[in-house]
Amino acid sequence: MTLVVLGIDALDPDLVDSDKHPHLTLDAHRSIETIVSSSGEPSTHELWPTIITGLSPTDHGLVLDDGVTWENPIVAALSSVADYVLPSGLQTRLGNWLLTNTGADAFRTPATYYADNDLETVFRGRESAAIGIPNYVVDPDTEDREHQLRRHMGDLFKRDSDAKGGHTSADPVAFYEQCLEMMMIRIARVRRALRSREHELVFGYTSGLDLIGHVTHSRPALQDRAYEEVNEFVGELRGDLDKEDELVLVSDHGLQDGLHTEEAMIAATDPSVVNSVESVLDVRAAIEELLETGEHTPKPRNDRQDGLGSEAVREQLDDLGYM
Which residue in 91, 170, 303, 319 has its CB near the most CB atoms, within 10 A? Predict the structure, then answer.
């Protein structure tokens, strides 16, 4: 049996509908509380470490500094100087420029950070796969297609603190297609990890829905279509589940009119998971309870019946240039 957790950044409880989006609402779903950062809105940088540790940002230490994170290598190299010579507003603009123009990634804290700081995560002591989780990077020297696309968006996605939603796009339709590709490949990786039957926990993440929401505030039909397509992608993942498997969807915040909202969301094939979660701080405990009460044990390699299916997914990703 395998528990699959799929993090969908900015999945908004007010924008899902059980009839239109049965695979985003699953057997039960609800809005949950999130945490607002120093920037005045919920922050991806802070919240995914919170979700996997059950700790507040001040307790796990990955805290947004005035809207800019200084952990990535390029920004970190300038931070000690910037703290002394630049006002905070200019630091924010500098960080925005660097993240837009240099290929720096703000969410690349290595997984070793947690052990180094004596922080337990939902992955500790488990046969698990962590796929693309912000600030929990298992192998900092590698990246997949979602990382590559996110880092090379150019004019399709520019940070602009003066714009509604904090971003602009030279071509929202082309940007939408790129984000859908990002989501497809991440969910395909989650499907492959599930089908391998090597893990008791598969935890994946995709950012495409958040990115689309930031630039489609003037084109709500694009955001609506994104929800319909993600619903289909998750439906394909759901089709890979065995009868004993469980699926949980979780977001870090919502997103409406280009801006983060202060409501996150959880959905699950097991309604008891949903009932036990009131905020992003509760997600880790709910996942662990589900793992501890079920037979979530990977099968010995020789006993797996679906290896060919998993290999077929890998070959398809290789053919598409995504692995």
Answer: 91
Closest listed residue to residue 166, CA positions, set 91, 79, 100, 221: 100
C-alpha–C-alpha distance, residues 248 and 26, integer Å: 8
Among residues 79, 105, 131, the one where a domain terminates is 105
Residue 226 near residue 206, CB atoms below 8 Å: no
Do the Cβ atoms of 22 and 220 come closer than 8 Å? Answer: no
pLDDT in tens, 53-74: 999 999 999 997 644 443 444 4
Question: Which structural domain, as residue segments, surrounds residue 274?
Answer: 3-58+110-319
Q: 138 and 77 in one domain?
A: no
User: How many domains is the chain partitioned into structurally?
Assistant: 2
Confidence at 159, pLDDT banded by 50, 70, 90: low
Task: Give 201's strand partners.
Answer: 3, 128
In whole angstroms, how far apart are CA 164 and each of 153, 160, 263? 19, 8, 19
Convert the pLDDT of each residue in 199-235 to its tens digit.
999 999 999 999 999 887 778 899 999 999 999 999 9
DSSP strand pairing (246-250 vs 3-8): parallel
